[in-house]
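Workshop exercise sheet. Pairs work together: one partner reads the sequence aloud, the other fills in the structure field after running the prediction. Swap roles for the next sheet.
Pair: D.N. / O.F.
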Amino acid sequence: MMISIRAALKREVRAVLAAWGFFTRLPLPGVVLGASDMGVAVTYLPACGWLTGGWAALVYVLAACWWPPLVASVLSLGATLLLTGALHEDGWADVCDGFGGGATRERVLAIMQDSHIGVFGVAGLTVAFGLKVTLLPTLAGAGSGAVGEGGASWVFVAGVIAAHSLSRASAVALMAGLPYARAEGAASKSRALVCAPGPVRLAWVLALGLAPFVWLPGEAWLVVPVVASAHFACRAWLRHRLGGYTGDCLGACQQGTELLIYLGLSALL
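Structure field:
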């Protein structure tokens, strides 16, 4: 019994490290991970959101001590892109290009697999970055209990972490509700992560994603049903257009949900 518990804990620790290694640029010196580790790594994608969200909030708070809010917001965004390698933003741009320029399922998939960025991708990134840069200062002005001279509060810190964690949980939930859209054996950088999380793991994913909301005012929870509605609408749309999801779709789901949470929290708090 003790051996099985130890083996289970070791497996979960390796899954955390696999998530850390794939979804961020942080080094893992001396750690060798296998395919089995990658298969459960998505369980801890929301926990990576705690890391990236905390990093984004920290950079904003420190930068706001010396520069105007918009400058702090741009620096925060840049720091987040460095930490994640723009992994999810790449998916967002590819989906904008694919659905913007593809009329058929096959054409959409082909465009998304192309490494070049098109006008729809540029436009999508411009809108997404513009919203993030302008919404972060708005959220930073919410609540009380400043943690920096720029006026950012604990509500801001928790809100940014919540946006990063719940948006990543939404992406994982997409994997539980849809099949993988590309043919077996098709080249994809996300292929190793493809899995359908079971009920227990999905419940754990959602718990990790929702945990930061505990530190937010009660009205912030009104964002959750909005996110859930958007998630199921996205799932239905992808099922209709592609018959499933791709790695790019997961990145786009994360980015779109993160923006939706910022919009909701900025309006409510």
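Discussion prompt: The CA atoms of residues 145 and 153 lie 5 Å apart. What would you look at next?
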